[in-house]
Amino acid sequence: MLRVTCAIIEFNQKVLIAQRNQNMLLPYKWEFPGGKVERGEKDEVCIVREVKEELNLNIVVQSRLTPVSHHYDTFSLELFPFICSTTSQEFELKEHAQVLWVDYQDLLNYDWAEADIPIVKEYLALKLE
């Protein structure tokens, strides 16, 4: 099972979401950016590294959400989500089809990768508390 991290990146009341490109598994599905944990790497280190590599964006981990195990047809993953902050909304589009800053209230309006859906719902529940 793949061990993967993802970041819910907040900036000025917006959240960063990324659309997978046509060559990725799950093409054109939306996700929170992140990536695979390397052997011996801590999850918190992984998510900071992955976001820097994919978006050239510096983030700070604020808190963890509940991990999600999901089984797709061709692979399984355990997804470790983090709420993160950043001091800039500027990023470089390197891997994804598109990346957007959106209002958290609009998150359910996107076609999410299935593993991300429980994370979206948990995040929204926290925001509405």
From TrEMBL:
InterPro entries documented for this protein: MutT-like (IPR047127), MutY_C (IPR029119), Nudix_hydrolase (IPR020476), NUDIX_hydrolase-like_dom_sf (IPR015797), NUDIX_hydrolase_CS (IPR020084), NUDIX_hydrolase_dom (IPR000086)
Superkingdom of the source species: Bacteria
Enzyme kind, highest EC tier: hydrolase
E.C. code: 3.6.1.55
GO biological process per UniProt: DNA repair; DNA replication
UniProt cofactor(s): Mg(2+)
Protein name per the record: 8-oxo-dGTP diphosphatase
GO molecular function: 8-oxo-7,8-dihydrodeoxyguanosine triphosphate pyrophosphatase activity; 8-oxo-7,8-dihydroguanosine triphosphate pyrophosphatase activity; 8-oxo-dGDP phosphatase activity; 8-oxo-GDP phosphatase activity; metal ion binding
Residue intervals passing through the bilayer: none
The Nudix hydrolase domain, residue ranges: 1-128
PROSITE patterns, alphabetized: NUDIX (PS51462), NUDIX_BOX (PS00893)
Catalytic activity: 8-oxo-dGTP + H2O = 8-oxo-dGMP + diphosphate + H(+); 8-oxo-GTP + H2O = 8-oxo-GMP + diphosphate + H(+)
Pfam short name (any one): NUDIX_4
Keywords: DNA damage, DNA repair, DNA replication, Hydrolase, Magnesium, Metal-binding, Mutator protein
Family: Belongs to the Nudix hydrolase family.
